């Protein structure tokens, strides 16, 4: 088609001479706010110096110094491939170690007599090379029972076919093992790591040392959970109820530190299923009287993939399911020697699993006849056993979500006082006898048996202010409000009480709360109404109970809802009313509320309750003297905003539940004690926060950061923050680069999107609690004092990190928080930053003691946890993934969280 405007076009360009290569003009690109590929990648900052403030003190730590002699050799990395005789790859965990042990036992001379460390999957390491780069071995493994054993059985056969076939199939397995060279890692790379030169080689070399520790533990028959090892010894087990045991073990890993290479040894705990008869576990798990009361649909989900041993044959299998019929009714076909067809061949006969074992095998069955059979085969080729022949193998992890009671019991029974922990770790070091391991010896590794002595400092506690500029006196990281008012007490005018069938004297409770509140400066009017739950709704589903209570409530408040509701719940530990109640108040009506369980109420309990109530309603209980006087170094001199960031994931067994990302931010600068939160849902099990910056059409950004920046601006006298300090929780060292280059980029882009000319300076700090370094007072049974800071010897050789115990450890052994400063444009000195972190552990409004991690991080965790209860995500995941017949590619879309009501979105509702 001709162009109607062709006469308006310019003449064609002149012809290009054949010897001229034209330059290609690149099309002008519009800036892509999400494309960071052209930006230089940020790297972790180096330590600018160490701190000097505070009282110097010597501690001991659970790091054991490691000598390293062989620095000239190489670790050789080999890839392992396992195949069955027919060429099919071997699947299933656990079998690899048995096969490799057999290879070493059979072909030690062909392997040059070299010891190896195997990771249990596809990697094997040696010190020095094997004789050849590619080696293939064939081994015969006796009595291997894996997924393939069941495949040999006939359809429905309880023993995988008749006895003869069963015997033949379980006697042995022939396997092929391919070992091929992959890489060599210089042992010297560990020396580079100790000098702070973190390369891929140095990380790999340290990983090899850790795999050697795993190999040692595997040879001892331990359960391996990453770098934690658990022995099969009843003295390590503690009953948590419900067929679940807590299992004590130890963590052991090599760390590159300023003081050289060290072995970090610590206690560790996991949960395992109770070994023994399978039926006993199911009965305990469901808390029922006998197997005839069991919910078998629920039991099927619980026991799937657990390993059992059959008592009649001593063979191991993995549970794949249950039979559809009872043992006495579940039929299968088998060949009968006594019954032959017209051609003289054995005929297939139908008989029940019960008849097979009782009549054919001559086994006695006491209670299995009326119970389902255990299936260890495949759906189309089942292999059934009566349940009473099934015994659970020991040391199997229990990966389902624990109940509140089980979790509390695990925490309580895992606690160890400092002195007890030191004794246990000393004994563990002796019993491990790492010095005798041939592979560690061939590396030239020697490990000292004494705890390492290190230098630290005790920081002075920050000064706190109560109401009327009164000073709060701190002692051992704690303070009280005796005869003092809150720094900024709230006013409670229009309020009500709702009682979900909790037993208490509501009138006395209200009077006591008002009495104590008045002493703290909170003015309480009498509650306008008290609502008792109607008897006919007490057994209704929780959302219905909440709706009906609100129907009562709104009939009394037809024009204006109450500003505050005190909610009395019947169960403190596990109340399913909590989530629907919070959602109704915070999302739909914008009402501040406080839940409580009035079982053991005294003045101390009500004092703690009032701390939360005052903070939620906009008050402040205490303030740092430095923020009042505006003399906190760096932070008070320029408008400074503080972020706390965390992601909360679904509990074990709920892998498809969306994760909840929460960011809290400071407001009302120069204060650093007041915060608000912004919360979003995101894809399940994703740790990186993807909703910080979300540009849309026009000048719209629906991300988390924008609303927090605007709130800081309006609450801080229309000032933009020129400094932003970010505390990020819940990420491991392997994710530091993503936090530094992806999350920080999103925050910067959110700032630029608001104002292109605005460039605040950033400091980014990761706070870790999930580590294994502990500190002890040498020769004392007490925990280290609050304010303990360590930034030498056991810290990273070059990166900017430090440990802090801001709190007083009252129970068990204090766990320090490990702070990693990834990025610092603001330019903090080591002392100023450590004192700021220490101070931020004293601004947590929910308690009158210093906490173990900076308050913004704890608040982010609270906000994510509370908002995650707004919606029943288990119902969501069912509707989004298994209903409607939609077959889209990729995971189902994440359901958005209900928004917080405008009345409460800027508050500390999470307190």
Automatic annotation (TrEMBL):
Domain PAZ: 277-394
Pfam family, one: ArgoL2
Listed PROSITE patterns: PAZ, PIWI
Biased composition (Pro residues): 9-20
Protein origin, superkingdom: Eukaryota
Key words of the record: Repressor, Ribonucleoprotein, RNA-binding, RNA-mediated gene silencing, Translation regulation
Sample GO molecular function, one term: RNA binding
Record InterPro entries: ArgoL1, ArgoL2, Argonaute_N, PAZ_dom, PAZ_dom_sf, Piwi, Piwi_ago-like, RNaseH-like_sf
Signal peptide limits: none
Residue intervals of the Piwi domain: 564-872
Entry's Gene Ontology cellular component terms: ribonucleoprotein complex
One record GO biological process: regulation of translation
Region (Disordered): 1-47, 149-169
Alphabetized PANTHER family for the sequence: EUKARYOTIC TRANSLATION INITIATION FACTOR 2C (PTHR22891)
UniProt family annotation: Belongs to the argonaute family. Ago subfamily.
Name this polypeptide is given: Argonaute 4
Source organism (scientific name): Heracleum sosnowskyi
